[in-house]
Q: What sequence folds into this?
């Protein structure tokens, strides 16, 4: 089956019902997307499907053929980190880091829908992304900074 991952067309041979997470990690070696719970409860495996944040641990690969799949590996460009990654770095969000690729993907999808989310809107949008290290206050701060960086980029 053919997939489009981070703008590249790739061919994979996994069974149709294999979760996208394992195709990304085991077949395509894109290991930035993490396994946490495997039952759509933690958000560690968040990727984008046609721009929408989804749980790759419960998404069969057959359901994503011919769709645009974006992972954390596709966020930085030749010109540098994405604004959300930059904000994460400047805010020093990560503690152990395990949940953070999922957090960044969720935040990126949120900011594409809502350019300037309030704290309650951030909390609501990110509620499905669990962080065992409790980095939520820094995540909130980083989302605000990312919103400002994106606005700056757009006005330049
Ligand atoms: S691993 Fe997919 S939501 Fe937890
Ligand atoms: S930074 Fe450790 S789980 Fe979130």
A:
């Amino acid at each position: 089956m053919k997939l489009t991952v981070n703008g590249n067309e790739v061919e994979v041979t996994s069974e149709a019902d294999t979760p996208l997470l394992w195709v990304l990690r085991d077949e395509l070696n894109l290991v930035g997307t993490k396994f946490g719970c495997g039952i759509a409860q933690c958000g560690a495996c968040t990727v984008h499907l046609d721009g929408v944040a989804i749980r790759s641990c419960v998404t069969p690969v057959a359901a994503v053929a011919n769709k645009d799949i974006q992972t954390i590996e596709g966020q930085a460009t030749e010109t540098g980190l994405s604004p959300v990654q930059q904000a994460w770095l400047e805010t020093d969000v990560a503690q152990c880091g395990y949940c953070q690729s999922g957090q960044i993907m969720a935040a990126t999808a949120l900011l594409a829908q809502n350019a300037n989310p309030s704290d309650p809107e951030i909390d609501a949008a990110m509620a499905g992304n669990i962080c065992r290290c409790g980095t939520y206050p820094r995540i909130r701060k980083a989302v605000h900074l990312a919103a400002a960086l994106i606005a700056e980029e757009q006005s330049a």
About this structure: The two ends are 41 Å apart (CA to CA).
